[in-house]
Design brief:
This protein starts with 5 loop residues before the first helix and ends with a helix. The relative contact order is 0.11. It is elongated and about 65 Å long. By secondary structure, it is mainly alpha-helical. The chain contains five helices and no strands. The protein has two domains: 25-87; 89-165.
Length: 165
């Protein structure tokens, strides 16, 4: 028999039950539906704008539109993956969403800074770069927190498995 506190042992299953319920709750599912719809609507809107242009767009604009469509479709795929899961994800969705956010933010920040460097004065380039750095830092913080939460939940799951055996 374990020498752990019996009250602490009872809290672990309750905590895991609460986490699993939150992951599969209606609110959580609706948030993922909203993310998928937002990504899909953005991708479709940009594609429609691109297709309905009366004259060919410049190559840089085509590349920007293609990148934004890919980002929108990535959010659709992410939401579809999360919503199709039947088992608890143990915050894997948070980590994947945070990575997706970080990549999209880095690409957008670099592209925005490059565009500003090609067309604007030093002040605008600096402002764009600083905004990009701030957004990348925020996305990085979200990723660190998501990874920490996932590690915490996996430790909790492993403790429960050890306790059960």
């Amino acid at each position: 028999m374990s020498e752990q506190n019996p009250a602490a042992q009872r809290d672990v299953p309750e905590e895991l039950e609460r986490v699993v319920a939150a992951e599969v709750s209606l609110g959580s599912r609706m948030r993922h539906v909203a993310v998928g719809l937002a990504g899909g609507c953005a991708a479709v809107l940009i594609a429609v704008l691109w297709v309905t242009e009366p004259h060919p767009l410049p190559v840089r604009t085509q590349a920007a539109f293609a990148g934004l469509i890919v980002i929108g479709l990535a959010w659709v795929a992410f939401a579809g993956w999360v919503l199709s899961r039947r088992r608890p994800l143990f915050a894997r969705d948070r980590v994947l969403g945070a990575w997706l956010s970080l990549v999209a933010t880095v690409v957008t920040g670099v592209a925005g800074t490059a565009l500003a460097a090609a067309r604007a004065a030093t002040v605008e380039v600096l402002a764009t770069a600083l905004a990009g750095v701030a957004l990348v830092a925020a996305a990085g913080l979200v990723l660190v927190r998501a990874q920490s939460r996932r590690r915490e939940l996996l430790r909790l799951r492993d403790a429960l498995r050890q306790e059960a055996s």
